UniProtKB/TrEMBL annotation:
Residues 297-493 form the Leucyl-tRNA synthetase editing domain. Its EC number is 6.1.1.4. Coiled coil: none annotated. Residues 730-760 form the Aminoacyl-tRNA synthetase class Ia domain. SUPFAM superfamilies: Anticodon-binding domain of a subclass of class I aminoacyl-tRNA synthetases (SSF47323), Nucleotidylyl transferase (SSF52374), ValRS/IleRS/LeuRS editing domain (SSF50677). Residues 816-923 form the Methionyl/Valyl/Leucyl/Isoleucyl-tRNA synthetase anticodon-binding domain. This is leucine--tRNA ligase. Residues 116-248 form the Methionyl/Leucyl tRNA synthetase domain. One of its GO terms (cellular component) is cytosol. Pfam families: Anticodon_1 (PF08264), tRNA-synt_1 (PF00133), tRNA-synt_1_2 (PF13603), tRNA-synt_1g (PF09334). InterPro entries: aa-tRNA-synth_I_CS (IPR001412), aa-tRNA-synth_Ia (IPR002300), Leu-tRNA-ligase (IPR002302), Leu_tRNA-synth_edit (IPR025709), M/V/L/I-tRNA-synth_anticd-bd (IPR013155), Methionyl/Leucyl_tRNA_Synth (IPR015413), Rossmann-like_a/b/a_fold (IPR014729), tRNAsynth_Ia_anticodon-bd (IPR009080). One of its GO terms (molecular function) is ATP binding. Keywords: Aminoacyl-tRNA synthetase, ATP-binding, Ligase, Nucleotide-binding, Protein biosynthesis. The lineage of its organism: Eukaryota, Viridiplantae, Streptophyta, Embryophyta, Tracheophyta.
C-alpha cells in the first residue's frame, strides 16, 4: 500500500496553470481535481511524483480504480507512443538522409561527425555503447539546425575472430551470425532515435565494400609498402591463427585463454615505418587530446643514436668475423658496457652457441621455448623479474677492447632495434637488476649534474663523463658532458668503421596476415612453379578488374593444425590460373586482419554506392576531413595510427585531398556497472570491517544486496551492523560479472529520450561514470515536467489533449531573459561537448517557467528547439502540437539576443555611517533619490534610519550608497 499526498504549490497559481497542476488522474473514472491539500488517499503499490502530489518510489506507475481492480498505467509522459511514431516518421520521410552530389548545396558549410563503428556481437548493445553515439547525435542535430550539411553515418566492422570462433563452436556460417547481429544492433540503435543516414550504411563483410579494401592493398603492393617476410609471431594452435600482441595476455589468447607460442612464419607486412616521420610530425596540427597524441608519439618512438658493432671472440680470445650490432641512444655510456644481451629469437644465436657445449645448448633451447610463450608486453614489463642464460661466448668492446659476456634474455625483443643491446648496468635499471642477479660487473661512467651520486642505484640521466678513456686507440671523453661525449663516440665509431649514427623507431612494420577464414581475401596468387622454392614465393597481384576476390563458401572453419589457414581447405578456390601467363597458380590463403576494413571506412561513407571508384574526388574534397570522430580510448593508438598511415598513402597517390583523416578526436569515458557492495568475512564466517582486513589474515568476500547497505559518512556499512564497513566498487560492464544493463529494458521503462538524457547528464563526456538506474528517474521526471508544462495533465484514459497550454501573447522581459540565458548556455555547452551542464540549464529554465502565470508561444517554441538534440522524440511531438506540420530537424537553432543577456538591476551595498548594513536591488540607471527611497523602505535598513536625521548622502552610481546620520535621536529622517 502507498500514500498519495497533495503538495501545496510554492506560490499562488493562475487559473489555467492551477488546474493543470491539480488534474492528475488517479482513477479510471474522471475526476477533474485531485484531493484537497489536507486529504490523503491509499492505493496499491504505485509510485511517482507529479506537480501537485507525490507518489513514492518510481516514475511510471499503475493505479487502481475505486470501483474495481482495473489497473490504469500512469506515465510521466506518453513516450511509448511518441517514440514509435516519430521513428516511423523519420524512416518514411528519410528525414536524416544526406543529399547526394546533384542535390547537395555545397555553398553551405559541412559537418562530418563519425562514431568509431561497432563490431556487431551477438550480445547486442549495453548502456555503455550509446554514450558516444548520443554525443555525436546531439552534435549532428545541432549542426543541421545551424544550417550545415551534415554527414552522420553508421556501419559495421564485421570481419574478425569472434564471428569465426562462434562459427566453429556452433557450426553456423559466420555470414549468417554476422547478418543476424547487425540486424540486432540496427534495431537497437534505431530505437534510440539516432539521426544516422541509414541509406549510407556499410559493412566490411560485403564484397562491394571489401573490393576497395583489396584495391588499397594492391596500391600498397605496387609501391613496395606491402611485402612478405619470415617473422616471429604469436601463434595460437587452438585458434589456428596469429594474434596481435594486444590479443595475448599472460601467455594465452585473450579470447578463449588458449596457449600462445612464438614461432617464425611467412607473413604479409605493411611498411608503416616508411611513414614514421610524417605520422609523428603531423600530430602537432591535430585537435586531439594531448594524451592520445603522446601515446602515438611513444608508440612510434623516434630516437637518435648510433649502431655499434661488437666482434665475437673465439674460444681462445681472438676476434672473429662474426659481429653483433647494437643500437644505443646513449653512446656516451659505452665505456660502462659490461655484457651484451641478445633476444631469444636473434638470428646469430644458433651459431654462437657451440655444439660442444651441450649443457649450454640445452639451457638456451629451454629458455627460448619459455620465452616463445610470452607476449612482447609481458617480456618488457618493468616490474617483472629479469631472467636470462649465458651463451658461453664473449665479445670485444670496441672502445676499450675488453672481453664481455654475451647473454640471452627475454627483456630484449628481436623486433626492436637490432635484437641486441649493450648493457650498461650502472645507468639502466633493467640492466642493473639483471647484473645483480647474475653477479655481473657494474662500471660507473656518468656522474649527475647535481653531484649527489648514489653508486648503489642506477643513474639514467645525463651528466659528466668519468672512467671513459682508452690507453690504446679508443676515444677520450673523460670530463665531457653526456651530449658532447655522445657526439665524440659516434664520430669515433664512424671513423674507425665500428658503427654509424642512426635514427631508430620503436614502431614496427604492421603484421598484416591472419590464419582465419572470416576476413578479406588477399588479392594475390603464386605460380605453382615457384611453390617449391626455398625463398619466399613471388606474389602476383590479380588484375584490378577481377576485384572483388570473394570468399569461397566453407563448411569447415576449424584450424588445420598444420599452420595452414582454413582457406587452404577450399581446394577448388585455391587452385587457379594466373591471368597474364595462363600458368597454374595458387591463391593466398591468409586473410587480412580485422583492422583492414576499419582503416578507411570514413571515406566510403562519403560515397557508399560508387562501383567505379573508392570515393568520388568531388565528394571527398567537400566532406574531408572528418570534423569530429568519437570513440573509445582503447583505439587511441593502433586503429588511429593505421588509419592515418593508409590515409597518407592515399594522399600520396591522389585519392584524398587532406594529409590527415580526422580533424578532432574525442574519447568518451566508459560507463561502469552499478556499484556492488562486498562484505569481508573471517575464516569463521564472521563479518569483519573492510578497513581492518589487512590485519585479520585470511578473509573471504560476500556480495551484499543494496537494501542491506547504508551510507555512513564517506563509507558504506551494513544496516544491521554499522561497525562493518563494506567494499564499494564499480566494474566495467561484462556478462561474466552480471552487471550488464540492457538499453532495451531502460527504453521500455523510461523511454529512449530519458536514456539519452541520462547518459549525457551523468557527467562530462570524457570521464568514466558509474551507472545508477535510480539516477535515470531524475531526468525522466524533468522530461515529464517539461511535457506537462506545455501539454497539460493526462485525461482519464491516460491520453493527452491535442492542444497545449501556451498562449499567443507577448512575453515579459523576465521571460525573455530566462529564455535567452538558456539559449546562450545550451549553445555554448553543445559546442564545447559539455552536455551535462547544457541539460542543467534547461532544467533551470523549466523550474523558472513553472512560476509564470502564462506560457507565451514565442518562449515555448525556442525551448522545444533547444531540447530537440537531446530528446528528439518529445521535441518533435511538442513541435507538432504547437501547430507545425513538418519536422523540426531543419528548423533554425535559437540564437541568444545579447540585449536580453544583460542584467538591468544590480545589488547596491548600503552603508550607514560608513558601515555596510545591507543591500538593495536597484536599476542599473538609478538616481540617488531612488536608491535612498528603496533603502528607506527595506525592512532591514529602515530600522537604522527610523527617527534619525540624515546629515549627508554619498552616492556612487552602481557602486555604493552611504548615509551619514546626525547623532540626534528625536528627529525623523527625511525621505
Amino acid at each position: 500500500m502507498i500514500q498519495i499526498q497533495w503538495l501545496l504549490p510554492p506560490q499562488p497559481l493562475t487559473s489555467s496553470l492551477h488546474h493543470h497542476r491539480r488534474s492528475l488522474l488517479f482513477s479510471s473514472r474522471r475526476r477533474s481535481l485531485p484531493p484537497k491539500p489536507s486529504s490523503t488517499l491509499t492505493f496499491s503499490n504505485v509510485s511517482t511524483k507529479y506537480f501537485g502530489f507525490r507518489v513514492c518510489n518510481c516514475v511510471n506507475s499503475e493505479s487502481i480504480t475505486e470501483e474495481s481492480n482495473e489497473v490504469v498505467k500512469v506515465r510521466a509522459y506518453p513516450f511509448h507512443e511518441i517514440e514509435q511514431r516519430w521513428q516511423k516518421f523519420w524512416d518514411e520521410n528519410r528525414t536524416f538522409r544526406t543529399p547526394d552530389d546533384d542535390e547537395l548545396d555545397t555553398s553551405k558549410p559541412k559537418f562530418y561527425v563519425l562514431d568509431m563503428f561497432p563490431y556487431p556481437s551477438g550480445a547486442g548493445l549495453h548502456v555503455g555503447h550509446p554514450l558516444g553515439y548520443t554525443a555525436t547525435d546531439i552534435l549532428a542535430r545541432f549542426k543541421r539546425m545551424q544550417g550545415f550539411n551534415v554527414l552522420h553515418p553508421m556501419g559495421w566492422d564485421a570481419f574478425g575472430l569472434p564471428a569465426e570462433q562462434y562459427a566453429i563452436e556452433t557450426g553456423t556460417h559466420p555470414k549468417i551470425t554476422t547478418i543476424k547481429n547487425i540486424d540486432r544492433f540496427r534495431t537497437q540503435l534505431k530505437s534510440l532515435g539516432f539521426s544516422f543516414d541509414w541509406e549510407r550504411e556499410i559493412s566490411t563483410t560485403e564484397p562491394d565494400y571489401y573490393k576497395w579494401t583489396q584495391w588499397i592493398f594492391l596500391q600498397l603492393l605496387k609501391r613496395g609498402l606491402a611485402y612478405q617476410a619470415e617473422v616471429p609471431v604469436n601463434w595460437c594452435p587452438a585458434l589456428g591463427t596469429v594474434l596481435a600482441n594486444e590479443e595475448v595476455v599472460d601467455g594465452v589468447s585473450e579470447r578463449g585463454g588458449h596457449p600462445v607460442i612464438r614461432k617464425p612464419m611467412r607473413q604479409w607486412m605493411l611498411k608503416i615505418t616508411a611513414y614514421a616521420d610524417r605520422l609523428l610530425e603531423d600530430l602537432d596540427d591535430l585537435d586531439w587530446p594531448e594524451s592520445i597524441k603522446e601515446m602515438q608519439r611513444n608508440w612510434i618512438g623516434r630516437s637518435q643514436g648510433a649502431e655499434v658493432e661488437f666482434h665475437v671472440l673465439s674460444k681462445d680470445g681472438k676476434v672473429t668475423d662474426a659481429k653483433i650490432t647494437v643500437y644505443t641512444t646513449r653512446p656516451d655510456t659505452i665505456f660502462g658496457v659490461t655484457y651484451l644481451v641478445l633476444a631469444p629469437e636473434h638470428p646469430l644465436l644458433s651459431s654462437l652457441v657451440s655444439e660442444a657445449q651441450k649443457n649450454i645448448v640445452t639451457l638456451v633451447d629451454e629458455y627460448k621455448e619459455v620465452a616463445s610463450r610470452k607476449s612482447d608486453l609481458e617480456r618488457t614489463e618493468l616490474q617483472k623479474e629479469k631472467s636470462g642464460v649465458f651463451s658461453g661466448c664473449y665479445a670485444k668492446n670496441p672502445v676499450n677492447e675488453e672481453a664481455i659476456p654475451i647473454y640471452i634474455a627475454d627483456y630484449v625483443l628481436g623486433s626492436y632495434g637490432t635484437g641486441a643491446i649493450m648493457a650498461v648496468p650502472a645507468h639502466d635499471s633493467r640492466d642493473h637488476e639483471f647484473a645483480l642477479k647474475y653477479n655481473l660487473p657494474i662500471h660507473w661512467v656518468i656522474t649527475s649534474d647535481e653531484c649527489c651520486d648514489d653508486f648503489e642505484k642506477p643513474y639514467s640521466g645525463e651528466g659528466n663523463v668519468i672512467n671513459s678513456s682508452s690507453s690504446t686507440s679508443g676515444p677520450h671523453i673523460n670530463g665531457l658532458h653526456s651530449k658532447k661525449a655522445a657526439v665524440e663516440v659516434i664520430n669515433w665509431v664512424e671513423k674507425t668503421g665500428n658503427g654509424n649514427r642512426k635514427i631508430n623507431y620503436k614502431l614496427r612494420d604492421w603484421l598484416f596476415a591472419r590464419q582465419r577464414y572470416w576476413g578479406e581475401p588477399i588479392p594475390v596468387v603464386f605460380l605453382d612453379e615457384n611453390s617449391e622454392s626455398e625463398t619466399l614465393p613471388i606474389p602476383i597481384p590479380i588484375p584490378e578488374s577481377e576485384l572483388p576476390l570473394t570468399l569461397p563458401e566453407l563448411d569447415d572453419f576449424t584450424p588445420t593444425g598444420t599452420g595452414d589457414p582454413p582457406l587452404s581447405k577450399a581446394v577448388s578456390w585455391v587452385n587457379t590460373i594466373e591471368s597474364s601467363s595462363g600458368k597454374p597458380a595458387k591463391r593466398e590463403t591468409n586473410t587480412m586482419p580485422q583492422w583492414a576494413g576499419s582503416c578507411w571506412y570514413y571515406l566510403r561513407f562519403m560515397d557508399p554506392k560508387n562501383s567505379s571508384q573508392l570515393v568520388d574526388k568531388k565528394k571527398e574534397m567537400y566532406w574531408s576531413p572528418v570534423d569530429v570522430y568519437v570513440g573509445g580510448a582503447e583505439h587511441a593508438v593502433l586503429h588511429l595510427l593505421y588509419s592515418r598511415f593508409w590515409h597518407k598513402v592515399l594522399y600520396d597517390i591522389g585519392i584524398v585531398s587532406t594529409k590527415e583523416p580526422f580533424k578532432c578526436v574525442i574519447n568518451q569515458g566508459i560507463i561502469l556497472g552499478e556499484v556492488q557492495y562486498m562484505a569481508c568475512k573471517d575464516k569463521d564466517g564472521n563479518f569483519v570491517s573492510a578497513d581492518s582486513i589487512h590485519a585479520s589474515g585470511d578473509h573471504k568476500q560476500e556480495r551484499i544486496p543494496d537494501e542491506k547497505v547504508t551510507k555512513s559518512g564517506a563509507s558504506f556499512v551494513l544496516k544491521d551492523n554499522p561497525n562493518i564497513k563494506l567494499i564499494a566498487r564499480a566494474h566495467k560492464m561484462s556478462k561474466s560479472r552480471g552487471n550488464v544493463v540492457n538499453p532495451d529494458d531502460v527504453v521500455s521503462e523510461y523511454g529512449a529520450d530519458s536514456l539519452r538524457l541520462y547518459e549525457m547528464f551523468m557527467g562530462p563526456l570524457r570521464d568514466s561514470k558509474t551507472w545508477n538506474t535510480s539516477g535515470i528517474e531524475g531526468v525522466h521526471r524533468f522530461l515529464g515536467r517539461s511535457w506537462r508544462l506545455i501539454v497539460g495533465s493526462p485525461l482519464s484514459d491516460g491520453t493527452y489533449k491535442n492542444q497545449t497550454l501556451v498562449v499567443d501573447e507577448n512575453p515579459s522581459l523576465d521571460q525573455l531573459k530566462s529564455l535567452h540565458r538558456c539559449i546562450e548556455k545550451v549553445t555554448d555547452e553543445i559546442e564545447a561537448t559539455r552536455f551535462n551542464t547544457g541539460i542543467s540549464a534547461m532544467m533551470e529554465f523549466v523550474n523558472t517557467a513553472y512560476k509564470w502565470d502564462k506560457l507565451p508561444k514565442s518562449i515555448v517554441e525556442p525551448f522545444v528547439l533547444l531540447l530537440s538534440p537531446y530528446a528528439p522524440h518529445m521535441a518533435e511531438e511538442l513541435w507538432f502540437r504547437l501547430g507545425h506540420s513538418t519536422s523540426l530537424a531543419y528548423e533554425s537553432f535559437p540564437k541568444a539576443n545579447p540585449a536580453y543577456l544583460k542584467d538591468t538591476t544590480i545589488t547596491l551595498p548600503v552603508q550607514i555611517n560608513g558601515k555596510t548594513r545591507g543591500t538593495v536591488q536597484v536599476e542599473v540607471i538609478c538616481t540617488e533619490e531612488e536608491a535612498f527611497k528603496l533603502a528607506s523602505l527595506d525592512q532591514k535598513l529602515s530600522k537604522y534610519l527610523e527617527g534619525k536625521i540624515v546629515k549627508k548622502r554619498v552616492y556612487v552610481p552602481g557602486k555604493i550608497l552611504n548615509v551619514i546620520l546626525e547623532r540626534e535621536t528625536n528627529k525623523v529622517a527625511s525621505l
